[in-house]
Amino acid sequence: MPERSLLERLIARPELGPLVLLILEIGVFWAINPDFLSPQNIANTLAFTVELGLIALSMTLLMTSGEFDLSVGSLFGFAPVLMWTLFNAGATSLEIAFVIAVVVAALIGLVNGLFVTRLKIPSFLVTLGMLLVVRGTALFITDGFPQRTWSAEGQWLAETLVGDFQLGPFRLYMSLFWFAAAALILGYILTQTRAGNWIQASGGNPAAALARGVNVTGTKIRLFMLSATMAAFAGIISSIRTSAANPNSGTGYELEVIAMVVIGGTALSGGRGTIIGTVLGVFILRVMRNGIVLIGVPGLAYNIFIGVIILGMMALHSWLERRHHAGT
Amino acid sequence: MQAPEAMAEPLIRMAQISKSYGNVQALQDVDFEVREREIVGLLGDNGAGKSTLIKVLSGAVRATSGKIYIRGQQVEIRNTTDAIAHGIETIYQDSALVTQLSIARNLFLGREPIMAPGFLNRMDQAAMATVARDLLRQVGIEKNIPPDTPISALSGGERQAVAIARAMHFDSDLIILDEPTNNLGVAETQGVLRFVRSARDSGHSCIFIAHNIHHVFQVVDRIVVMRRGRVVADAIDPRQTSVEAVEQVITGMAHAPASAPARPG
Ligand SMILES: Nc1ncnc2c1ncn2[C@@H]1O[C@H](COP(=O)(O)OP(=O)(O)O)[C@@H](O)[C@H]1O
Ligand SMILES: [Mg+2]
Predict the structure, then answer these.
(1) Partner residue opposite B105 with nearest CB, options A197, A203, A213
(2) Which 3-state string (H, E, C) describes B8-61?
(3) Chain A nearest C-alpha distance from B98 (Å)
(4) Cβ–Cβ of A194/B119 closer than 8 Å?
(5) What is the value of ipTM here, to two decimals?
(6) How many Å lie between the centroid of ligand 1 and the Cα of residue B21?
(7) Which CATH class is domain B1-87+172-265?
(8) What is the pLDDT confidence band of residue A74, given thresholds at 50, 70 and 90?
(9) How much of chain A, in percent, has pLDDT values that exceed 90?
(10) Where does the pLDDT of residue B145 fall: very low under 50, low under 70, confident under 90, or very high at 90 and above?
(11) Confidence band (pLDDT; 50, 70, 90) for A324?
(12) To the nearest whole angstrom, how far is the Cα of A155 from the nearest Cα of chain B?
């Protein structure tokens, strides 16, 4: 097996399929409606994208370690509700309320992790239960009503999280930089560090990893905490941007996020994950949502397209996988 | 009074080990030792209990009764992590490797070298690749396989070689090889045999189980024969015994040759 050429290496990468799909998608929408690439539409798409994207990034690491988290959508709704309830009641400053919301989310992630690793309950069941507990709590403490958020205006915390600014023709939100920073750091952790090696080994062959002294339990618990924290962070950003903390927001996000991650090439069964692929998967789904509305397809048809993309990409990944191993 | 020589503790001593699976008695009152820098060949027909014996030692199964001593100290080996912590490394076909990870990442799993001025424990991947290339050559892989190749793209023999390379690099006191030459090509088999021989020189002990009795004769210091869950001969010197004589002990057609008075080591 001689060293492979650059082109062969590129073709063997799992990110190539999603990249081609994204380019095709953008090309088609642009050909049908040139407004698709207008600065305003690009800025709009980016703003929505990064909030789900943040959750997808941490979900990528969690799924690489062989677990997943269905409670992210409910935390997306719950964390801002908690933060604004504390603040509006005059109990704490906005900063303290923010810290409390994020810490509570991390503790919820810890509970998920402990149930999965110590009690050996599949993450599907644990996080499904947690989804109901967290969503139910958000509805209970608000009586189902949205919380006031307009007092965020002028708060430095709000500016840091979602403040917008003009870059040439684009009106961009700060959250885009949080997304870029998270993608860079998590991508670095997954591919370059010891923690990344342990994440992949924990998902690939936990028994072998354990036998080599890898802390599989600790690795997974930390990723559950990261996942919950990111979901809370994304929910808070979204609440400030849309000036609404709705206890129902984030419903169904867990499945959309998992779809983004697997479309990008991360294995649902664990062991293999790619942050670059997830970034592409995030854009594929968000561009699709934005594009079909723009070219006049009824928005209700969105799920048909998403389903077809998921099925098509899964078929492609499995075909590449088999072709890759055919020679051995 | 015993001579100090005779008092030297063996590296591993298993005493009165029994193991039953339901009503199958896989091991019955087995006594077995491995001395420092000794290569022990373990022979016996299929089902004799060889794999079960070494699985007890490597933490893969727990004995029904019996004791294990390492350098005279009694130890509990409850799982593979315990065994590795006691310096016992076992090489199975591929269950010990993460197939999604590359060769280099598997070699260093759990003991990754970290870059000195690094961020968040960055691995020194250049050093990992260099060591991996070197080790693969030592275990007889002549083909130039890049160290970033995933294990899933390797043949059974190549996977075996990676597992052996790992045991070599991280000095274990005892390396257990259960039929390591099955499914291997000629060059790979020679690599394994060469490795077993060099293991003694670098201070390791080895338990070597193989179907091919000639391979065992080529490398071991002492042969132990098992039959139906019991040790029936434990001091056969391959330099003073013929292959045919050992075959007869294995099949039970002859009694074990009298224990050689002078044991190697
Ligand atoms: N997991 C198991 N369950 C039941 N019986 C087993 C199991 N493993 C081994 N045995 C039995 O124990 C005996 C010894 O097997 P083994 O140690 O694998 O022999 P060897 O490696 O010498 O061929 C055999 O009779 C085998 O059928
Ligand atoms: Mg066997």
Answers:
(1) A197
(2) CCCCEEEEEEEEEECCEEEEEEEEEEECCCCEEEEECCCCCCHHHHHHHHHCCC
(3) 5
(4) no
(5) 0.83
(6) 8
(7) alpha beta
(8) very high
(9) 60
(10) confident
(11) low
(12) 32
